Amino acid sequence: MRDTTHVTYLHARLRILKLTPPGGARFSSTLCHDARLPTLLMTTSHARHPDVPASRASRLLPPDIVPLVLAHLSWRVRDLGACCLVNTLWRRYATPFLYERIWLRDQKRLLLVFRTLAECPHLARYVRIMEIRVYPFGLPAEKLEDVEASIVQALHHAVNLVELCWTRAGSLNDRVLMTIFDNMRCMRKLELSGSGQMSTQMWEPKLLVSHLPRTVETLSLIMPSREVVNELVHIAKHLDNRLCSLQLLCMNSAVVTDGLLCDLAPHVPRLSQLSLVGCKRVHGTGVRALVNKPIRDLSLESVALDVGVLATLAPDVVHLKRLTLTPPRHVRDMKSFYDEASVLIDACNALECLTLYARGGSKPVVGHDLGSTGDTSRLGEVQADLDVHINHEVQPPSFQQQLTPSSPYISTLCMARLCASSSAHSLKTLRIQGLGMSLDTLSMLAQSPLKHVLRDLDIHLYEDNVPKLIACIASFERLERLHIFSDLQSHAQLSDGDILRIAREAGGEWFCQIGFQNRVWHVRSTRQGRELIPWDKSAGTFPQSMLVVRS
User: Are 313 and 291 contacting, i.e. CB atoms less than 8 angstroms apart?
Assistant: First the structure.
């Protein structure tokens, strides 16, 4: 199996060809920070057979254990490449994992990968997820034709492809679109750039209607043109009621309208996930038409919803698991937004993920809370225990005295109603970005039922009080990941020592990741205590907290 093409591909992904000698195995302690099972197994094997050099320990592992080990290295291309070069057995098991996900981030790698897949159909059949986010536009025309031919041939052999993400604008054309789906019988998810950067459409939207595999259940369109959007209803009809997830990511665009969504609604009865981003012509009727009982994941980001629309969705979101919202830009609309968001949260019986973030250009809000001053009876014991001053000034004095924030802040009442809702017993992920949170509000969350269930927390702080922050974070018993954001001009500027102190004193036994601003660390426990390890990019993924805010 040591064909030169495969080795060339390994070189493209590993940047190093001679990682281990043939038949040898040298796993260092830094091979995998999150999955140390390979190292542990190698050590155990050597301990059982002390007369055998550690370099030969891999041969003593039962063959059935090898794929279990490699499963912990999923998408870690460097480590999987090293495993391919251990011996024949490891290569046989590691190769499918290595090619399972093809994530193309630079042009040179794209050329090598598609040449490999085109020449080795057996490798192309391992591919289940493919992401094309770059394209070598600078090549001469004849070489671009060769690249295109390699892509078509590779995708022709990728019969087990489940997810295809092709977001490089201008790289998809009619010739490719008419052929790439011919042998795809397992396709479930498709993400496309809806238009090119050029003034003209690079591919005919009607071709997508006729060639799209009927197995597709998730469809994402990035910056769709009006021509693509106009075919959306026909695409839904073509899929024959199979569409379960729809994502339309625009940028303050007028191409998606309430009328279009209303026309689409009868053809997506199974829709369980809806994401609308940057749709300035969507005011509410289209959202109400699409949101029904099956909905489990709802994202309304930078959508120009009329006042009162969110509250009307409450009867249909009882079973909602994930909710993402962005407050309006204008301060005058903040109070009604948080009122309606609270109604929506109250209606959810078992919400697991809640994301609230400020859209770009939002004006600062200073001096008063943005929650409702209406009926507070639903807060019950939470109101008494947490001393939430619903009918008075809820902005903590310390917060006001220290600084004037330059960004909006989260409504204290909205968070109090979250603590009093049934979702407080089920919420695993809470992400609040660009909306300032006082430590008093964080303390309120830490004393609620959230402390027993929350695993992933993103917060945006203005205050610099590390002991109080540690006390709050330590209350979350099952917290695994924490990311802290702050404005550069705020007082909340944590040093590396502060981050290490938080990781050591605040994290429970499950704590494994911490971040501040644009930096992320793994948290690893040693005999000397916890230590921070910079984020390992070899896995080919980014922390959820670091994903670009899209509005």
Answer: yes
Using an 8 Å Cβ cutoff, are 153 and 118 in contact? yes
Report the SS3 class of residue 279: strand
SS (H, E, C) 329-374: CCHHHHHHHHHHHHHHHHHCCCCCEEEEECCCCCCCCCCCCCCCCC
Are 397 and 424 spatial neighbours (Cβ–Cβ below 8 Å)? no
Q: Is the pLDDT of residue 407 over 70?
A: no
What whole-number distance in Å separates Cα of residue 408 and Cα of residue 415?
15
For 183-230, the pLDDT digits (tens) are 899 999 999 988 644 445 678 889 999 999 999 999 999 999 899 999
Asked if the model's pLDDT at residue 25 lies above 60, the reply is no
Cα distances (Å, whole numbers) of residue 87 to 37, 51, 61, 62, 234 = 18, 20, 12, 14, 51
* C-alpha–C-alpha distance, residues 468 and 449, integer Å: 19
Which pLDDT value is given to residue 362?
62
User: pLDDT at position 238, please?
Assistant: 95
CA–CA gap between residue 202 and residue 196 (Å, rounded): 6
What sign results for the dihedral spanned by CA atoms 466, 467, 472, 473?
positive
pLDDT tens string 321-371: 999 999 887 767 788 999 999 999 999 999 999 999 987 656 555 444 544
Q: What is the DSSP letter of 203?
A: S
> What tokens appear for 509 in the block?
């036994």
Q: Which residues contact 192 (CB under 8 A, 6 or more apart)?
A: 166, 167, 172, 208, 220, 221, 222
159 contacts 185 by C-beta, under 8 angstroms: yes
pLDDT at position 434, please?
87
- Cα separation, 329 vs 331, in Å, equals 7
Q: Across residues 296-302, what is the average pLDDT?
A: 95
Residues in the chain: 551
DSSP letters of 384-440?
A: HHHT--TTS--S-HHHHHH---SS-B--HHHHHHHHHSGGGGT--EEEEEEEEE-HH
> What percent of the chain shows pLDDT beyond 70?
76
Residue 519, SS3 per DSSP? strand
446, 472 in Cβ contact below 8 A? yes
Give every CB contact of residue 345 below 8 A, 6+ residues apart in sequence: 323, 351, 354, 414, 417, 418, 421, 423
- The model's pTM is 0.81
pLDDT of residue 145: 92
Residue 376 to residue 383: CA distance in whole angstroms:
8
Band the pLDDT of 388: cuts 50, 70, 90: very low
Q: How far apart are CA 95 and CA 97, in angstroms?
A: 5
Specify the pLDDT at position 157: 94
Question: Could you tell me if 501 and 530 are in contact, meaning their C-beta atoms sit under 8 angstroms apart?
Answer: no
| CA-closest candidate to residue 217, choices 190, 186, 243, 237 | 243
Q: What is the pLDDT of residue 1?
A: 43
Please give the Cα distance from 1 to 93 (Å, whole number). 12
Strand partners, 148: none
Amino acid identity of 55? Answer: S
